[in-house]
Amino acid sequence: MGNRSGADWWRQRLLAEGTEPDPRFSFANERTYLAWIRTALALMAGGVGVDAFAEDLPAWSRTTLAAVLVVLGAGVAATSFTRWRRAELALRRQEPLPVHAVIPLIGYGLAVVAVGVVVLVIVAG
Amino acid sequence: MDPDLGAGGGLQNERTTLAWRRTALAGLVAGALVARHLGGVAGLAVLLGVAAGTGAVDLHAHRRYRHRSTWVHDRQVVSAPADVAALTALVLALAAVALFAVLLA
What residues have CB less than 8 Å from B62, skipping those under 6 apart? Predict the structure, then answer.
């Protein structure tokens, strides 16, 4: 990872098109990827937290909710890599950056989960 | 050479390195939560693994910061596909452990 030839191999495999973009765009793309990863980590931590601390919920719903959050976190992490790569390729080809349908999905999805948890707590408590 | 790129390159480099370190810290917190939920020997092993992984990411980010500060000046490549791929793999591994902890522990 630290040596140039290793990094070059990855670069040839993943980014073998177009020309090098302005470094500031590559940096920005990398920071965007890292923000997605932190989102994924938060989802995973949220899932484990629900399983550990949400005693008000019946066991089956707690485990299901926790597992769903962890799997969502894994999905966000996996897709953030492809998002990074597509953005880097778009930068290299000087095309417009791809728009991500998942962003409103995550927003609305989290709202739905929150409402679901409130309903569950009221019904079960 | 674009003078803005010189200063901008250094500042961008610094912001990006800070983002890596912030992410490593978030990984440590999430990993510690998973380890605590697992408990016992398995939890301790996960904690040690997470600490080692977090430390490695942090150290590597520092090394890349030093490399990139010259690369921007020399107008070489700064993108890091190997690092991005490696971090994704580490986070997915933690997700697998977290799912195990939720379903079976």
Answer: B17
The phi-psi region of residue B39 (left if phi > 0; otherwise alpha if psi is between -120 and 50; otherwise beta) is: left
Residue of A14, A17, A19, A30 to mutate, interface with B, max B Cβ within 10 Å: A30
Supply angle C-alpha A25, A86, A3, rounded to 5: 65
Retrieve residue A49's tokens.
Answer: 């937290």
Interface of A with B in 35-74 (CB under 8 A): 35, 37-38, 40-42, 44-45, 47-49, 51-52, 63, 66-67, 70-71, 73-74
pLDDT band at A60 (very low <50, low <70, confident <90, very high): confident
A102, pLDDT greater than 60? yes
Q: Is A23 helix (H, G, I), strand (E, B) or coil?
A: helix
Q: From CA B75, how far away is CA B6, in angstroms rounded?
A: 10
* Three-state DSSP class for residue A67: helix
Q: Rounded mean pLDDT of chain A?
A: 86
- Write down the ipTM of this complex: 0.90
